[in-house]
Amino acid sequence: MSAIARATAVHQVHELLRQFPVVALLGARQVGKTTLARQVGAGRRGPVTHFDLENDADRERLAEPMLTLRPLRGLVIIDEVQQVPELFRSLRVLADEPGVSRRFLVLGSAAPALLRQTSESLAGRISYLELGGFSMADVAGRPLDRLWLRGGFPRSYLAPSARKSLEWREAFIRTFLERDLAQLGFSLSATALRRFWAMLAHYHAQTWNGAEIARAFAVSEPTVRRWLDVLTDTFMIRQLPPWFENISKRQVKSPRIYVRDSGLLHALLGVDDREALLSHPKVGASWEGFALEAVLDRLAVPHGHAYGWGTHAGAELDLFVTRGRTRLGFEFKRTAAPKVTASMRSALDSLRLDRLDVIHAGNDQYEMADRIRAVPLASIETAVKPI
Question: DSSP letters of 204-245?
Answer without folding.
Answer: TTEE--HHHHHHHHTS-HHHHHHHHHHHHHTTSEEEEPBP--
